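Retro notes (design track)

What went well: tokenization of the new backbones is finally stable.
What didn't: we kept losing track of which sequence belonged to which structure.
Fix going forward: every design gets posted as structure first, then sequence, in one message. First example under the new rule, 282 residues:
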């Protein structure tokens, strides 16, 4: 059985379980369940704190985990990213009261509050800055108001939490993060069970990113049309009963679909349809 760590709480938990469910795996029915065996797919899911997942995977007791890139790096664990998953996207930034800091050099001699000491310590060391770092478990935005630190380093998505606390970001982003699949560094990625798991998740990613587009066009416009819808490998072209017309089928990035439909219409294509892809193996 493949043993997989899944976040049990927080921003990563819901989307991770939703993706696994979309990939055909059973998922727990209630948030108190800590382990779930999916015998049909020969997988065992362990619902763990997001912060602990890299540690478990690096120990080799679990084969694979889903966590945040920032949490992986912060942990310093002997684990590595093998597939980015496109959700729980965030940046990791310094923030302070407006006008109190412009760049990393302003941190010298100051105190930085964070839940991600590993990332901050390394970033300060790499930048040659001597600052104190204080660890807080969460809600670090409040640390400045309460005088525990002059600067915070935290996850920023919409920026709402910072605005609400009267803070603003400064300096370059320390890192960009998203949910990722991890394994122990150097672990066997050729294991067929691991490969099958990754293919399933890749299938979900593709299904989320592309739509299937079908349309009819005159044979003389085919090259122009195909240039607009090159697909992943090559579009499927079928003859129509009407002489001089062909039907085209191709995958198109969802974000481009409306523009591509307009452009196809403009060159004379008709009966342009898009349909959702529910699953795929490329
Ligand atoms: N508002 C957000 N939007 C997107 N991703 C986020 C957001 N907050 C956190 N994340 C991402 O989720 C992961 C951390 O999740 P979360 O903050 O829920 O866990 P935690 O802080 O370790 O746990 P907890 O806060 O429950 O103690 C990180 O990868 C982080 O980048
Ligand atoms: O830019 P925003 O969209 O406001 O998102 C960022 C906030 O989300 C996370 O907090 P979380 O909800 O995990 O609480 P925590 O601080 O207790 O970890 C993070 O620590 C920020 O506070
Ligand atoms: Mg949090």
């Amino acid at each position: 059985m493949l043993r997989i760590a899944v976040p049990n709480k927080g921003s990563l938990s819901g989307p991770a379980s939703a993706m696994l469910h979309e990939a055909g795996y059973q998922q727990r029915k209630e948030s108190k369940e800590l382990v779930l065996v999916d015998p049909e797919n020969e997988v065992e899911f362990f619902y763990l704190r997001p912060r602990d997942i890299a540690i478990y995977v690096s120990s080799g007791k679990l084969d694979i985990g889903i966590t945040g890139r920032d949490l992986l790096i912060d942990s310093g664990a002997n684990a590595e990213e093998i597939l980015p998953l496109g959700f729980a996207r965030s940046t990791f930034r310094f923030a302070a009261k407006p006008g109190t800091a412009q760049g990393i050099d302003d941190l010298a001699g100051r105190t930085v509050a964070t839940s991600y000491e590993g990332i901050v310590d390394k970033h300060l060391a790499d930048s040659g800055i001597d600052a104190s770092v204080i660890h807080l478990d969460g809600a670090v935005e409040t640390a400045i108001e309460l005088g525990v630190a002059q600067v915070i380093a935290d996850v920023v998505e919409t920026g709402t939490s910072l605005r609400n606390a009267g803070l603003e970001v400064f300096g370059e982003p320390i890192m960009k993060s998203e949910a990722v699949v991890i394994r122990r560094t150097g672990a066997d990625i050729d294991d067929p069970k691991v490969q099958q798991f990754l293919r399933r998740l890749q299938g979900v990613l593709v299904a989320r990113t592309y739509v299937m587009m079908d349309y009819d066009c005159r044979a003389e416009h085919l090259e122009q049309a195909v240039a607009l819808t090159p697909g992943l490998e090559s579009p499927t072209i079928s003859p129509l009963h009407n002489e001089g017309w062909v039907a085209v089928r191709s995958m198109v990035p969802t974000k481009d679909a409306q523009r591509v439909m307009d452009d196809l219409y403009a060159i004379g294509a008709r009966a342009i349809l898009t349909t959702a892809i529910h699953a795929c193996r490329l």
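Added context from the reviewer: Residues 226 and 235 are 7 Å apart (CA to CA).
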